[in-house]
Amino acid sequence: MQWFETVVDYLKNFSTYRGTIDAYDILEILIIAVLVYYILVWMKTTRAWQLLKGLIVICVFLLLAYFMEMTTIMWLAKNLLSFAVIAIVVVMQPELRHALEELGKKNFLPSGIFSDSSRREHELFSEKTISEIVKACSEMGKAKTGALIVIEQKESLKDFERTGIEVDGIVTSQLLINIFEHNTPLHDGAVIIRGNRVTSATCYLPLSDNLDLSKELGTRHRAGVGVSEARDCITVIVSEETGKISVAYEGGLERNLSAEELKERLQRLLNRQGEEKSRSKHIWKGRSKAKNEKENIS
Length: 298
Description:
298 residues, alpha+beta, 7 strands, elongated
């Protein structure tokens, strides 16, 4: 393995390289150190941490084999390396995808570049929609009717919508209660809400593999937490066993909420959307004003 021999050679002759290090090399080392640090921090929260410890053991073993001149083992390692890289990518596919999604959430670029300009104002959450959701969840909780309601925010949920049945109806408590009523065609699965409309029902959601979740939670709660881990949505869950209301957001779960507490959580979401809307309008007005002033000067 050429790279392995290069590393060993560098370690043996490290003293001869010290005189050739300049400011750019130091900057490069700092950048790599920061990248390695953040990669390790990310790996600590995923299954990749166990994989990393296994790779460290293998690397230590190969290092010993190299110094002991175990040529057969080194030949096998050299020929299996390309397959090992592909195997690691396949095994770590969910974690790598999640890491890239998290990177995409960072605001490195202006929000207008990749934003969905076709999103209209009437698609924003309204106070009436909040009241209808709270009323429906309260009534279903009293009747111990299980429910799973996913509310879209910035990130699209269209890939989950495709797993269900299109509804496209205005959010009302009667509609939500009828959807989740026992022995009805649409009661099994999740309902997805975009703005003030129910877009789809009977949608399938990814289950969370968070080991810290209580063992008494069923599939409905794990699906609610799972979709909140994958997207920035807020999920409302009504337990079929206890009638208690829970809210999942960013992988966290708040349980046993009252109707008032549920309304407060949803209003917080509405206020945040309103602030972002007004901020974007303010930025656009500022740009338009600057453009007009420039035209007047010219």
